[in-house]
Write a structure and sequence with these properties.
2 copies of one chain form a homodimer. With 237 residues, chain A is mainly α. Chain A is 86% helix and 0% strand. In chain A, α2 runs antiparallel to α3 and α6 packs antiparallel against α8.
Amino acid sequence: MKFDKASHSEHISTHFDAELEQIKSNLMAMGGLVEQQLADALAALASRDALLAERAQKSDNKINQMEITIDEECIRIIARRQPAASDLRLVVAISKANRDLERVGDETCRIARYATKMLREGVPSNTEVRHIGRHVSEMVRNSLTAFARYDTELAYQVAREDFNVDEEYKFAMRALVTDMMEEPRHVARNMNIIWILRSLERIGDHACNISDHLIYLVKGINVSHSSLEQIKETVRE
Amino acid sequence: MKFDKASHSEHISTHFDAELEQIKSNLMAMGGLVEQQLADALAALASRDALLAERAQKSDNKINQMEITIDEECIRIIARRQPAASDLRLVVAISKANRDLERVGDETCRIARYATKMLREGVPSNTEVRHIGRHVSEMVRNSLTAFARYDTELAYQVAREDFNVDEEYKFAMRALVTDMMEEPRHVARNMNIIWILRSLERIGDHACNISDHLIYLVKGINVSHSSLEQIKETVRE
């Protein structure tokens, strides 16, 4: 059941493989747009730029439309081409990664809305948002690179990073809650940051899911509920 | 020797239909388990019952395993049977609803963990959790009934209910945040309730998604990014 990268790219010449390559590159194009949207939302917070926050929110429609198109293409290719083995796994993995990417877009749109709100209220962001934001953006980029290159080792690194992000997230949350207890005037502004961190943490989860789909594609094994140690074994065996 | 094409294809389709019915009933069984898990988590909060909270958390493994099994069955049926038209839509809709149901299980597990924490800390739940919890449970039940009966009108009602839940959620959130500003000693306990309400609101979204997948199955139209008005038109035309 293993995915043979060499033989897969060898018969790229056939029309069917061209179609598969097309939906894969459509997914990558959507990934690029989502990455840009996330970069805009985080830059809006860091540099207090309302226009960037607005641009990030406006991307949502385009990303939703791309999700529907890729989903339809996946179903059409299954109906017309009746793919088997690794071709079918590629279509299934693209279809699942498509949904996770769209969710990253949703969470990013939420962050951009909070950015707009905070700019309007004159509330500053904080270093945890910057730090975790950078970390999570890297996870999204790496999950897409892993998918593009069938790189299961990089996919495993994404899963490993998620544990670090979760720790950073819990630490930041505790600090924000403690601050609210000591300084009730900070409640409203900290809640904005809490929701942004929550969205960032969710984006990290979706980057992990995208990596899981790539591992399924290459190894034929569903690792979506596996431990980090099991993922490592699956990838390196 | 005459080849009876009609009876042959009848035989094949009968067997195939039995396979399709089987994965659909596996999905419904998983739905039943998720409904029970949610009922347990909410009852744990309402009647301060730690055993129910524990049971809800323990269901998670079983639900995750069911998700993997149904996912594998969907892929196997596509590879072996090469379904077309409405059969393919059924497999796709089951596969997507499967993922949403598993997410409902995840959010419910999170609620059960907060229930355990609140019971340990002697913190009471509140009426909003009870009220929104009942509302969201009804949405999950109706989305599964809609799926079981191919009832698009009921699926539309679920989408409509989500707007009411969102309003109730926003109202409850505002009250909890205001209370934290006025009474800093309530910060820690209100944060528990805020996370529970957030999970309930997400469960409502997943119930909506399951309804969307059913509408796609019956009508062949992807309504996942449609307005409520567009969904109504799609269902009633």
